[in-house]
Each structure stands twice: as C-alpha cells, then as structure tokens.
Amino acid sequence: MKVDIDKSWKKELGEEFDKEYFKQLALFVKTEYQNHKCYPNGNAIFAAFDYCKFEDLKVVIIGQDPYHGVDQANGLCFSVKDDIKMPPSLVNIFKEIENDLGKTFPKTGNLERWAKQGVLLLNATLTVRAHEAASHQGKGWEQFTDEVIKTISAKKENVVFLLWGGFAKKKAKLIDSQKHHILTSGHPSPLSANRGYWFGNKHFSKTNEFLVSKHLETVEW
Description:
Layout: H1 7-13, H2 20-35, E1 38-39, H3 47-51, E2 59-63, H4 88-101, H5 112-115, E3 119-123, E4 128-129, H6 141-155, E5 160-164, H7 165-169, E6 181-185, H8 190-193, H9 203-213
Parallel strand pairs: 2-3, 2-5, 5-6
Antiparallel strand pairs: 1-4
Subcellular location: Cytoplasm
Function: Excises uracil residues from the DNA which can arise as a result of misincorporation of dUMP residues by DNA polymerase or due to deamination of cytosine.
Catalytic activity: Hydrolyzes single-stranded DNA or mismatched double-stranded DNA and polynucleotides, releasing free uracil
C-alpha cells in the first residue's frame, strides 16, 4: 500500500508510517486489495486527509468503518459517492440538519463539500472488504487513527469533536477537553435515532456557535 497522504498531514504523522505496526498494516491492506474487492478505491483510502488539510481543520467527525456496499465508500466517514443512494445514518444526519438549521435536504450524500471547509471525516478503520463489515478492524488502522486524534488534540486548539454513538464517545479520552470542544450524542443510525438518542442534538448549530465564539469561519452544512 502506497501512503499517498496530503503533505500537511505527512509532516505531522510521518513518523507513524515508519513504525512496525504500520508496515504490517500496509502489507495486510495491499494483500487484501490484491485478492479481494475492498473499499474505498485505493486512491481514496486517505481522502479524509486530502480534502481537509491539517492547517484548515476545525471540526472532526469520527466514524467506525467505511461502507462495504458496492461503490458507496469514498474515503470520508458517513459520506457516499455522488449518485449513490444515501444510507439510513446519512439520511438521519441530513434530517437533523434540516430540523436544526432549516437547510433543504441535499441531492447528494457526498460530503466532500464539508471536508473542504475543514471538517475531518475520519473513520477509525480506513478500509473494508466488500460486503464484510468490520473485516479490517484490529489490523492496525485504529492505532493509526487514534494517533491522528491525539496529534490534533496536542497540536491544534479550538477544534470541535463530534462523537456520535458509543464507539466514537470512547475517543474522548484521547482529546484534551480544556483545549477543544467535545459534543456527544447517540449515533444517527435508525436503531439509535428512533429511540430518541440522535434527533434534536443540534450539533450543527452548536458547532457553528462555538466557531463564531472563537472568531473562526462557520461550516456551511
């Protein structure tokens, strides 16, 4: 696996790529992509970092795995490629934005437009085998993405972290809450949302209110 990551992140994370766990991870991913259909496409594995440069970063959203359905994943958590049907969690995200901010429901579930505004859409595991959820967990990706979170926490300030669901909430221990703003809620999946743990969290307006309070540009959700 070639580590083709934006130079602003390579500067901050370069040491990780030389560590033994990452070399083993790279070998695993390369073998998987050679022998199985995997997502996202190889050139999109680090898309979250390519669209959101380190110096522009102001919001982090943490997901767990890429979508494993045909041509859904584009390297950004919760996001799908243009012209792909929106998964239920993404539909619920847009419903909350509609209720929170009065925004019209978008025609596409491609969240590249968020990433370009400084929103890091980070999955804890960056690859998956087609139709096999969680198939690339426990291979080293989590160690790498935890290091990403710790690096952001240490080297940035006034970043908003949106932690949705039990898995993402566990990442709070990696974040300095004195320097950053952490918002938590249930996951936008139907199971959680329909039990009242997602809708009404107003995370999108709260994020922008915090950014305004720090004299930072808001996100056009």
